[in-house]
Design a protein that fits this description.
Blueprint (H helix, E strand, L loop, with lengths): L6 E8 L6 H20 L7 E8 L4 H14 L4 E3 L4 H11 L6 E3 L18 E3 L4 H14 L5 E6 L3 H5 L1 H10 L9 E4 L6 H10 L4 E3 L4 H13 L5 E4 L7 H5 L6 E5 L6 H10 L6 H21 L3 H9 L2 E3 L4 E5 L4 E2 L3 E8 L2 E9 L1
Amino acid sequence: VEEPAGELLIGCLQDITGATSSLGKSVQAGAQAMVDEINANGGIDGMKIVMKTYDTKGDVTEAVNAFITAVTVDQVSLVVGPPVANIANAIKETTESYDVPVVGLALDPACQIKADGTPYKNMFCLQPSATSQGMIMASYAMKNGYKTFGILYNQENAYSVSLLAPFTNKLAEGGITIDESVIVPYGAADTDYKTLLQPIVSAGVDAIYCPNYTQQLVAIVGAAAELGYEGKIIAGLDAAPAFNTTYGGDCSDVYYINNMNTEDPEVVKMIEELCADVAAPNKFFLGYDIIGAVAQCVAEVGTDPVALQGALENLNYEGITCNIVVDPATHMPTDCFMFMYTYDGSKPVMLEEFAG
């Protein structure tokens, strides 16, 4: 039996503890599942993949220190990056000093693109940008006849902020403007969501746009229900499962965007076989696709980091979540399809497919 042709050491930089740990653990689990699958099938041309996880704890300083440890002490060849924009934004400047690609999921374009419009050489995102996702959610809302909106967003969270303008700009194209009195920002210290929501609920809007992380969404949806709000709540990816099980009640008026059709028979089969117990299946398969895409790049160009950067800039990978075609100018995918969902009680129901 031939010995494997060396090892490929990959770092996985995720929130394993902290407020967004369900997301980080799900990405980690998906990435590890693909690592195990590739290794079981002989590795990458005989090269075994080893993945080491670094817990950012949801803290930007922890994240920077963990990244530096990964690339200098452990000398990883590549980093599986987080789905959390605040963490990706924290490390992006530091990554410029090294030649280690970070292949993550932070959908805020500012995580990948500098102020001068050029990309950070090492920062990549393998899911559609906030620009694309915000526009899709607005298109869905207008298509379904919603005309008046309130917005509740976390002004201290890059993910939440990045989804604001694409949504409102798309509505404006359709002739819909939102009064400033029902656009309500809040910060980490603000937890009285009933008070924050009061002017929006009192205005009787058709829908509340609420791009926030799962734990905050759970509290916000609960507060809206306590106030007697009977309209719709439109949220981003983090209203996907495990939002429903975390909330524990009827979420029939919550609408959200997702990366894949979880009612497709092949996807259903993969969920049952690979991640039946994972909190966030969409994040699992995003992590799964990252490793698959990375393995394709390594098979094409080897492990030289500069060559890997080039391969990632020109990536065309048929993933579970998307046919991932990266734009070299943005380091993000182009034209991915996404899906709008709601819940029947607490059961996810896929409604429509939208092009990015």
